[in-house]
């Protein structure tokens, strides 16, 4: 087979130059675009997919009134899918190789779908879970979005009255359920920009754990019989299924709120609405008999619903049977809206608009690749080669029950060669046997276990975005310090009891100058008074941990007990340590204790560095930094 057949089909479109957001005046006939992205919802979590327990009339209406992509593929976990939607490229090309500790960051060279729409004169906003980088310029407001409100991490530990981040990196304590709050912000954005084209991205937080849903939804489900079971019914936790479906019904209500507001504002006819999910279900539950769930490269781990509605342009009730993927959404949405793509990197996705519009078109066969933890599978229109090199006929055997590589050795060999070529091209790995990588004992599925911190330093000190948040998830504990839970995303540092303990963040200070330093902490009242030190490249700041602050763990958050590995949360207090002069350059920022009068120092959720005056030359003289461990 020719090498060109092994590689993805690239659609190269040259767009506007970097730095020209808003340069083009929007055309009056350009549609608004609203994109809903569910978090951890499986293909089987919707009425349209045959689920008879859940009621999703608003989401289902998008398929009934628009187009359904029946064989639509995403990634096994969250941040990779988001990167592929944003860029139209397989996620490893953009540096996204994990879900936390910095591995979720999308490389700065990548241009996003929001960059393209903003360059075309659209108002752009994102409201919810970002999960492709937290610090500027990885922040969504540096990736094409004018407005942002939500959380930039992966899963979030507070679903009620959650602290969320605004477009300038400041924390806001909200009131209400997190999905309702972010939908409120999305609706306000639509109302504000109803007189111009807008691109509104609503990445929901649910049904990702923790298992928390408003009481009125849980009341409808807590005693509900579950007739349709998981592919592996012995693995199913029925209460988790009930809670996930209750969260989906809340999500459906919020989709309905947005659709109703578009209709009330007279925007429905010229708004393209998209709905899909980021991976397979996060628990074992009904998924149409498919094999696998979140974290798996099998069909059940990577197949999602995808519905697109644009009244008057897309045919109602149309079903596309060709295989499609999240990488296709950027070229498709920009083509439908008549928006030029920004950036010159070749795309892995295809423009699906001919299929959506039912145009006669020669549609070449293709392969769609799925990867996680260096496992790779490949899907064709009719077959899947799994991570271990087993071949399945997905038409005759959609549940992947009977491998057929012995009956179809030529096809199996051809797909194995395609996987090896893709691994070399996209993952940068040499050829080798297609062998499944075993999951570490005790590590949760979906890659949520402990992982080394990404070696890319955290950028600090951009005058246009002076706030840099250094959460515990992006730092590294040393000594006896550890995270509050195995899942780093919404964790905090605990067990800080010794002068030998440290926390460290690798920084790249871009602007020398004076910075304000704050720290979010808790501390038992009898232990207050420890002396702590922040140091970076010869500069240091010393402060006291006071007053004591020891709030109880929240008891109002969870509908069901938290899964193992997820932190219980509490109210953290902000301690202002003072100001420090930082010189430009790369290096570790250390946090350590110099004196511990009690049994412990404190628990630490985040440090925040705020640039208040550029130019270190005007600062106080630097004192020698204390040596690292």
Keywords:
629 residues; alpha+beta; Alkaline Phosphatase, subunit A; Jelly Rolls; nine-stranded mixed β-sheet; six-stranded mixed β-sheet; 27 strands; globular; disordered C terminus
Q: What report would you give on this structure?
A:
The structure is a single chain. The chain is of the alpha+beta class and 629 residues long. The chain folds into 3 domains: 31-366, Alkaline Phosphatase, subunit A (3-Layer(aba) Sandwich); 374-427, no CATH class; 458-618, Jelly Rolls (Sandwich). The protein has 11 helices and 27 strands. The protein has helices at residues 3-6, 57-64, 78-87, 113-119, 178-192, 215-221, 238-264, 299-302, 329-337, 353-356, 409-427, and strands at 32-39, 67-73, 123-129, 147-151, 163-165, 171-173, 198-207, 271-277, 303-304, 306-309, 318-325, 368-372, 375-379, 383-385, 391-393, 458-460, 467-471, 476-478, 482-483, 493-494, 502-509, 513-522, 531-536, 539-544, 573-582, 585-595, 603-614. Strands 1, 2, 3, 4, 7, 8, 9, 10 and 11 form a 9-stranded mixed beta sheet that branches. Strands 16, 18, 21, 23, 24 and 26 form a 6-stranded mixed beta sheet that branches. Strands 12-13-14-15 form a 4-stranded antiparallel beta sheet, with helices on one face. Helix 5 (178-192) packs parallel to helix 7.
Write a brief structural summary.
The chain has 629 residues and is an alpha+beta fold. It has eleven helices and 27 strands.
CATH superfamily of the largest domain: Alkaline Phosphatase, subunit A
Number of strands: 27
User: Unreliable stretches, pLDDT < 50, 5 or more residues?
Assistant: 1-23, 431-450, 618-627
Assign the CATH architecture of the largest domain: 3-Layer(aba) Sandwich
């Amino acid at each position: 087979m020719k090498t060109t057949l092994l590689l993805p089909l690239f659609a190269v479109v040259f767009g506007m130059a970097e730095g020209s957001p808003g340069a083009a005046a929007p055309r009056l006939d350009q549609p608004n675009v609203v994109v809903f992205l569910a978090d951890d919802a499986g293909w089987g979590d919707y009425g349209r997919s045959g689920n008879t327990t859940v009621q999703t009339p608003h989401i289902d209406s998008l398929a009934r009134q628009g187009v359904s992509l029946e064989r639509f593929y995403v990634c096994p976990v969250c941040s990779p899918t988001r990167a592929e939607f944003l860029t139209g490229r397989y996620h490893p090309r953009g540096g996204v190789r994990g879900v936390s500790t910095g591995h979720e960051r999308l490389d700065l060279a990548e241009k996003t779908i929001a960059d393209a729409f903003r360059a075309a004169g659209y108002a752009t906003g994102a409201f919810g879970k970002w999960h492709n980088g937290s610090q500027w310029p990885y922040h969504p407001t540096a990736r094409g979005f004018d407005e942002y409100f939500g959380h930039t991490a992966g899963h979030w530990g507070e679903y009620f009255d959650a602290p969320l981040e605004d477009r300038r990196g400041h924390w806001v304590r909200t009131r209400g359920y997190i999905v309702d709050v972010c939908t409120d912000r999305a609706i306000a954005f639509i109302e504000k920009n109803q007189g111009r084209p807008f691109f509104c991205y609503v990445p929901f937080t649910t049904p990702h754990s923790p298992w928390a849903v408003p009481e009125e939804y849980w009341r409808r489900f807590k005693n509900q019989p579950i007739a349709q079971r998981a592919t592996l019914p012995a693995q199913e936790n029925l209460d988790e299924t009930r809670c996930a479906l209750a969260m989906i019904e809340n999500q459906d209500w919020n989709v309905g709120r947005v659709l109703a507001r578009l209709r009330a504002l007279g925007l429905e006819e010229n708004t393209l609405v998209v709905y899909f999910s980021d991976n397979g279900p996060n628990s074992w539950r009904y998924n149409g008999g498919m094999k696998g769930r979140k974290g798996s490269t099998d069909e059940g781990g990577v197949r999602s619903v995808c519905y697109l509605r644009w009244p008057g342009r897309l045919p109602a009730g149309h079903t596309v049977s060709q295989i499609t993927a999240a990488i296709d959404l950027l070229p498709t949405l920009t083509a439908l809206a008549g928006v030029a793509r920004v950036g010159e990197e070749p795309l892995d996705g295809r423009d699906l608009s001919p299929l959506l519009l039912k145009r006669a078109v020669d549609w070449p066969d293709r392969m769609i690749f799925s990867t996680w933890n260096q496992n790779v599978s490949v899907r064709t229109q009719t077959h899947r080669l799994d991570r271990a090199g087993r071949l399945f006929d997905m038409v005759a055997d959609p549940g992947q029950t009977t491998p057929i590589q012995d009956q179809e050795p030529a096809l199996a060999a051809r797909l194995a060669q395609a996987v090896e070529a893709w691994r070399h091209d996209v993952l940068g790995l040499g050829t080798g046997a297609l062998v499944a990588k075993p999951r570490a004992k005790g590590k949760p599925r979906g890659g949520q276990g402990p992982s080394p911190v990404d070696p890319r330093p955290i950028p600090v000190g951009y005058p246009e975005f002076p706030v840099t948040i250094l959460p515990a998830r992006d730092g590294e504990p040393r000594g006896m310090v550890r995270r509050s839970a195995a899942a780093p995303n919404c964790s905090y540092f605990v067990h800080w009891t010794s002068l030998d303990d440290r926390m460290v963040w690798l920084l790249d200070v871009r602007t020398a100058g004076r910075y304000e330093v704050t720290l979010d902490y808790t501390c038992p009242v009898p232990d207050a008074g420890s002396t702590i030190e922040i140091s970076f490249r010869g500069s240091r700041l010393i402060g006291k941990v006071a007053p004591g602050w020891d709030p109880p763990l929240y008891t109002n958050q969870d509908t069901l007990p938290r899964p193992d590995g997820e932190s219980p949360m509490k109210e953290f207090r902000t301690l202002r340590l003072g100001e420090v002069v930082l010189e430009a350059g790369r290096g570790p920022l250390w946090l350590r204790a110099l004196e511990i009068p009690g049994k412990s120092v404190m628990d630490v959720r985040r440090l925040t560095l705020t640039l208040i005056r550029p130019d270190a030359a005007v600062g106080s003289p630097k004192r020698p930094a204390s040596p690292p461990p």
